[in-house]
Amino acid sequence: MSTTIYTMALYNSNSFLRKNSMKRILFALIAGVSIAAPALADLALAQKKNCMACHAIEKKVVGPAYKEVAKKYAGVDASAKLATKVMKGGSGVWGAVPMPANPQVTQAEAETLVKWVLSNK
Ligand code: HEC
Predict the structure, then answer these.
(1) Distance of CA 36 from the midpoint of ligand 1 (Å)
(2) 11, 20, 62, 103 - which has most CB atoms within 10 Å?
(3) What's the rounded Cα separation, in Å, for the pair 121 and 102?
């Protein structure tokens, strides 16, 4: 009887340790991922908001390549103007084809997206 209790206690403390180190490993994994995640999260947002239907990072599709956009505005504070354009649409900067309004995008999302677009240098 006492052996059983002892064994159980040992077993429990063992699985406690195991759980704890699993937690630590998970935590380390999550911490690592969240450092690498912002760029990916913003790409996911751009996909979700349909931006990638007309844009790609590396090449022109209907709209300009995000890399080209980032190059064009390097060193210029264009974020506010671009965020408004993402929401309201516009034309004439990259050619005759207009970007339609994107009413599915909030101000905060537009700012996040523009920040990400401009980071694709
Ligand atoms: C239907 C196609 C289409 C969709 C969808 C679209 N765009 Fe565009 N985008 C364009 C075109 C075309 C231009 C070029 C407009 C111009 O020449 O002024 C452009 C231009 C831009 C620019 C540069 C604007 C400038 O004045 O230099 C940014 C930034 C941009 N788009 C971001 C986005 C984001 C973010 C989304 C998603 C919310 C998005 N676009 C969705 C077609 C699109």
Answers:
(1) 26
(2) 62
(3) 24
**9 in helix, strand or coil?**
helix
Total residue count of the chain as it appears in this document: 121
Topology of the domain comprising 2-119: Cytochrome Bc1 Complex; Chain D, domain 2 (1.10.760)
- Provide the Cα torsion 107, 97, 63, 48; round to 10°: 50
Lowest pLDDT segment from 34-38, 59-63, 84-88, 112-116: 34-38
Cβ pair 111, 79 in contact under 8 A = yes
Domain ranges of the chain: 2-119
Give pLDDT tens digits for 2-48: 555 555 555 555 565 566 676 776 666 666 655 557 778 899 999 99
